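Slide 14.
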Amino acid sequence: MSSSDHQANVPNIQQNRASGKCTLVMAPSGLENGGWGIFTLTPRIKDEVLNQYGDVVIQITDPNPHTAAGMRRLVWDYLWEGQLLAGHYEGFQRVYSAVPGIGSLANGRTKGYNAVGGYPAVGNLGLDRGLSPGAGAFTRYDNYTWTASKDLDAGDEIFVSYGEHWMNERSLTDGTVWKRDVSDLRQFGYCLDNIIPGTSLIEHAGRGAFASRDLEQDSIIAPVPLLSLSRSSLEILKERQDGTVEKATQLLLNYCYGHANSSTLLFPYSNGVNMVNHHSAKVNVKLRWREGSELMPHSLYAKYMLEMVALRDISKGEEIYLDYGSEWEEAWKTHVDNWRPDPVDVKHYAHKMNTDAKFSVIRTLEEQHTNPYPDSIFTSCYYKLEPNAIDKLKTTKQSVGIYNPGMIAPRNLRPCLVIQRRELPASSSREGKEEQQMVYTVHVLNRPTLDAAQRIPRGHRHLVNVPRNAILFSEKTYTSDQHLVNAFRKEIGLGDAFPEQWIDHQTAQ
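Slide 15: predicted structure.
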């Protein structure tokens, strides 16, 4: 991910022959010590989407501080702030976001970046907690797209912004980039858009991976670079509001390769490979170790990489299937057989309420006394603490401010209480119809994972003229599907491909 990604140069890769239809490839970065990078093989115009179908986002919440050191490289070099990618309320202490694809492969520059990220979509594909044993077994965040922030030429490397603080913390500078030849990238680069996401044909599986074009037998359909982490590092300590602490397992486990008798897990971080589902009867790809992979357990900077290879010709639109192994298959069968619906009402999903016209008008606190929202739901507002308001808020219980529409940005979401609602004079739409608009008076509050500089000194801020699009429904911490007690958790088996030297007889709990 970063220019400190690999402390040694990536070895020469075998000829891969990216097809003429391929538009994105992974190849050694043009930055010194940049490890892998992403390159466009076609010219791009400003604001063009670079990954049409987007990346998934996996929220990592409240890691156990006693065991989290086992994923320190993942945290240090590859994860994003959860508040930037809709993970605001998934944890109480800390939320990180893993973004396999461009979000993990692209190198970072402070001023020389040429791609910017959007905001993930939120949804569960209809696999509600009261209906499906698949609820909570896959991330509900997806379609995180990246767009070009300037015109790009064919052969340009894609760079994103990690933020000035991130670069300074690691004593990194933008560095000099050498241009890669397009013909070399086509010949030796790994194609990143042979597979695209979609809704899996397998019942309860959620998302799946599909062939974007015809793929030949024995061809490498995707690179699978890996990060090693310890199994124990995926332990969560959930601190409940009543003071009790509960242990659970990160959703990330379902996206890692591993072995039941090993304490080592491998997280794949390239495009689409995380969505390849299990189907032992229809398997059409396999994983093999790339020549030159350094299979040293517990190494921070070893270069681990698998290649996903077609076992037969695969037609465009066909779902891609891998064999996870009999142990995973038996674990899933047992889970399905023993699964019982969660007692929480399936209508209590914030993402459904945010798109339902029935909730277009927000109820005030007074109205909620007689017509409350579900227990797991509360209202959030986009608000950024203005520097000139800090001194006032230190000395008064509340300070009134007028809402600034420029505050609508991912990191600015925080809890709010709706105090009043009033109608604005009707205005005409583009179609000539009259539209009635509402504005709200709210108290904005602090949230647990908020940056210290954005914490309101005395707890709340009074705002007027808040537009409806600045207010969202949110789910209370630990109430989303990924925190269900009965959610399925199991690593993907690598079978005989799992290195024997990593077997240490620590059976998964």
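Speaker note: The longest helix spans residues 326-338.
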